[in-house]
Amino acid sequence: MKDPKADISAIRTAYLAHVKQRALAYRELSQQLQGRDISQVLLLHHNLLNALWLDDVLAQFEEMGWKIITPAEAFADPVYKLEPVRKAAGQSLLLSLGRTLGLGSMPGGERLVDDGDYEIAELTKKGL
Questions:
Q1: Which of 86, 98, 79 shows the shortest CA–CA distance to 41?
Q2: Which of 11, 54, 70, 78 is 20–30 Å from 3 (CA)?
Q3: What is the mean pLDDT of the chain?
Q4: Full-prediction pTM beyond 0.85?
């Protein structure tokens, strides 16, 4: 049986670092593509992991000085009217736009297409 009192703080730390890394990488990509910050939409799937730390994610963004806005406000940005060629449905608009414009890789960009592999490997090293 699983221990309901297990210490999951390392998983929380890795999760928050993962979300922050993605957000900063997409911000950098928006700077490269448009020379400015683009309003972003955060997609979180409905699952226990996201539910556990949603408040922490929002607090982390606010601590970074970021403003939480509605999807309607974000989609008012003209970049969302562009239609880049996409390799797969559901792919990030900014990644698709970057590929369409021939933008090469950016530092940390490879992490935008993984599924948390880096964080999972680090947790595995810790025996979690």
A1: 79
A2: 54
A3: 82
A4: no
